[in-house]
Design a protein that fits this description.
With about 260 residues, this protein is mostly beta strands. Among the domains are: about 90 residues, no CATH class; about 30 residues, no CATH class; about 60 residues, no CATH class. Helix content is about 5%, strand content about 30%. The protein contains two helices and 16 strands. It has a six-stranded antiparallel sheet, with no helix packed on it. Strands 1, 2, 3, 6 and 7 form a five-stranded antiparallel sheet that branches. A hairpin with a 6-residue loop joins β15 and β16.
């Protein structure tokens, strides 16, 4: 009797999961809900203090971009943002309503001196060498009373001596020194030393509307359809006039369905 051997082959299939490639997607930064549209410090163009430094308002305004702008901090209840694609250190952005962001720039001195990021600085770059040179420069008298001049001439006329005293010190010039001759016989005029006068005006915030320049006229006020009548728009923002006001004053919407800011020409 032939023995039949039956060979049973078991095939075991081992299922091993493939190694997956996980991908992370960053979500855009949501648009700011709080803005400085009606904030007095923003309307007056005051600087912002952030991260131990002072940032000054510049321009032009830009639109909010959630793909590159990230929160940086809070100033007086208003969020500040940085643009990581341009200059995340020297410029911060303040939301001013209508999806607009106003740039505030830090003066480029100290650890920022000599740097420009990806943007041209709005203010001159102050190098440490210039600061030290200015501190070491001697003080120059700014008034005629700071110097006294005395001249004595002997009867022979050949021993002229000119003594110049400054701060109690006296210097003598040799006898060969000659006074410059006046032109056409005219007597030399009095020398007056003056300092550069400070700025006499600050025009502040302004906008162009109907071929005229309008300047900020104060804090924003609540909007009322009974009080204001529309007369046009500026960069997509409605412009109104007070029904009981004058033609030299307009009101521009600072925030959608929000207050309106006055401007005068």
């Amino acid at each position: 009797m032939r023995a039949c051997l039956t060979v049973i082959v078991l095939c075991v299939v081992v299922l091993v999961p493939r190694k997956g490639n996980a991908q992370a997607y960053s979500l855009p930064t949501p648009a700011p809900l709080v803005t400085a549209a009606s904030a007095d410090w923003q309307i007056r163009g005051e600087p912002v203090f952030y991260s131990g430094h002072v940032f000054h308002p510049t321009g032009p305004n830009v639109f909010f971009d959630g793909d590159v702008m990230v929160p940086a901090g809070i100033y007086r209840g208003v969020p500040l943002y940085r643009d990581v694609s341009l200059d995340p250190v020297g410029v911060v952005y303040v939301p001013i309503g209508g999806n607009l962001m106003r740039p505030y720039e830090r003066l480029r001195s100290g650890d920022l001196a000599g740097t420009v990021g990806n943007l041209t600085p709005s203010f001159p770059i102050e190098l440490d060498v210039e600061v030290s040179a200015a501190a070491a420069a001697p003080e120059i008298p700014t008034s005629a009373s700071a110097m006294s001049v005395e001249q004595t001439v002997s009867p022979e006329g050949d021993s002229a001596r000119r003594a110049i005293g400054t701060g109690g010190a006296t210097l003598e010039r040799p006898a060969t020194y000659e006074e410059p001759l006046p032109i056409d016989g005219a007597s030399p005029g009095k020398t007056i030393v003056e300092s550069i006068p400070p700025p006499s005006a600050n025009r502040g915030i302004w906008l162009e509307f109907e071929s005229a320049r309008w300047y900020s006229g104060g804090p924003a006020v609540p909007f009322s359809a009974d009080r204001f009548t529309p007369i046009g728009d500026h960069c997509g923002f409605p412009v109104y006039r007070d029904k009981a006001g004058t033609s030299d004053e307009i009101f521009v919407t600072a925030l959608k369905d929000g207050p309106v800011a006055p401007y005068k020409r």
